[in-house]
Amino acid sequence: MFFNFVDELRAAGIPASFKEHLVLLEALDRNVIEQTPEAFYYLSRTTFVKDEGLLDRFDQVFQKVFRGVFTEYGQQPVDIPEEWLKAIAEKYLSPEEMEKIKSLGSWDEIMETLKKRLEEQQGRHQGGNKWIGTGGTSPFGNSGYNPEGVRIGGESRHKRAVKVWEKREFQNLDNTRELGTRNIKVALRRLRRFAREGAAEELDLDATIRGTAKQGWLDIRMRPERHNAVKVLLFLDVGGSMDPHVKIVEELFSAATGEFKNLEFFYFHNCLYEGVWKDNRRRFSERTPTWDVLHKFGHDYKVIFVGDAAMSPYEVTYPGGSVEHYNEEAGAVWLERVTNTYPATVWLNPVPERQWQYTHSTRVVRDLMGGSMYPLTLDGLEDAMRELTRKKH
Amino acid sequence: MQRFEGTRNYVATDDLKVAVNAAVMLRRPLLVKGEPGTGKTVLAHEIAKATGAPLIEWNVKSTTKAHQGLYEYDAVARLRDGQLGDERVHDIGNYIKRGKLWDAFTSEQLPVLLIDEIDKADIEFPNDLLQELDRMSFDVYETGERIEAKERPIVVITSNNEKELPDAFLRRCFFHYIKFPDRETMQAIIDVHFPDIQKTLVSRAMDIFYEVREVPGLKKKPSTSELLDWLKLLLNEDMPLEVLQDRDTSSAIPPLHGALLKNEQDIMLFERLAFMSRRQGG
């Protein structure tokens, strides 16, 4: 019973297992639900889906398996039949708008554009419900398509009432995250080095037994708790080209603050120069000289830069190249000073690795880092942490 | 056992009812996630009330260890008693403190066990509880005792999504995501909490509330509990309806906004928006 349901779920990337299948059968057997399709949908959802990010996919699979409507998840929905597009356009554009569009170009052209727009939107799977043309820039009017509207294969084709799972209410939550906070934490754990420091608060049982045997009376020995003794300096690039990566960097940062007791962070813009800051709102008034940072924190700190390293090459290699102020010494000089002071230094880059070669400044920075530039993905993070632990200091 | 249908104080959607009933009947843990303030913890209280079961609450903190839910052995107290020659020292059972899971397993009446905010603890915490939640039994090594649940308790686990939970743990649970209530459900929730509130006030307040939630870039969107607090404040202050009604140009910040916006960045964002709308309007 429903074997292909489980298969389809797995094919769509929902980690459904045999165990959950048995649970579902048991629940059906024990009459947990009334026998309605909605109740069955809710029951199978609560059994199989354990992550709100997968709810939308589940809705699609459910629809496919139990209704025989074709929407394939994961694959790029490349071929959108033309009549569907026409139906959509007709449904969502008023006759006047259609006329206006037709005056803009041929029907085929418009269809081509709409098709592209649709593919783009589906491929991106963005959180919001802004669809085609809400910004008023597209020829498709300002009526504002919404995800339900362009639910290809939905009510517009079949002219029947919308079922719960067809509403796709959880679409906003579907994000194919590469990095979650948990993943980041697990990766950062590689950096752990435990040491006992601080106040003696924990009972040292072995020492107590030894002491008691030696002294002849109860000799309670205490010792400090074990703490993660790794020290980390984090330099974060803010503003400009980094804005699209803010979310991922925030996640990394929140994971890092939870994981390390000795964590110091500073902000910079594009490239490191003579000043860094801790509060982005007061970046011009409250700067910390980079020399002070280099002098204050010992050589055993591990340094992590986070930035896209995408800038004009002059910003790295020439004095006065900074876009914000006149820097007396080139950014490259400062980066070299950091790598000389802290042998364990890596650069994490949120831009995908294959794009690095196209940016001159990225290559320059990677060379300055001695090749230690890693993409901000789970694998990259693992490699970076391994690199940091490998270097003794 | 009768089905869970929500209670007088708690509006349960259909999907939530199915999830709760499945968890109650098959006695598997129910994992509840959702935005803060959508009533995750309250759900456990209401299940307990609806089924007439006692509620055992285990509030998890960042320092909570899994074994603290089972029992703790106070070795230092025993050492001290041994030194003082106290009679109690001969019975190791005197130094074993029961945890919440132990209480739940041995409770006279079938209890509801709430493990609140499981994601607060260390990431290994859920893994350490797998065995116990699965078999509903554990061993006390100090006394060689085995604690077994007479009847599997109803377990409700809440998570705020601060950490992801391990797969093996998830496989054993039913899952429900409390999505943010739509207007209809929200109306039902407000009716339950403020039975004799003015209808126009509610509808205007809800307009503002959903508008606030729509503002892009908010750090913390206001949720159900904040709307309820805000309504309570509005009622308490006896805010005249007009204040809510004519706020088109005068200010974009809702009155008593402190109940809705909990973050100074969000308030600043609103002040900026208000300034801009004033400029456009005037």
TrEMBL record, chain A:
Residues 122-152 are annotated as: Disordered. PANTHER family: BLL5662 PROTEIN-RELATED, BLL6692 PROTEIN. This is VWA domain-containing protein. It comes from Novosphingobium marinum.
UniProtKB/TrEMBL annotation, chain B:
Coiled coil: none annotated. Residues 26-184 form the AAA+ ATPase domain. SMART domains: AAA. It comes from the Bacteria. It holds the Pfam family AAA. GO terms for molecular function: ATP binding; ATP hydrolysis activity. This is MoxR-like ATPase. It comes from Novosphingobium marinum. The lineage of its organism: Bacteria, Pseudomonadati, Pseudomonadota, Alphaproteobacteria, Sphingomonadales.
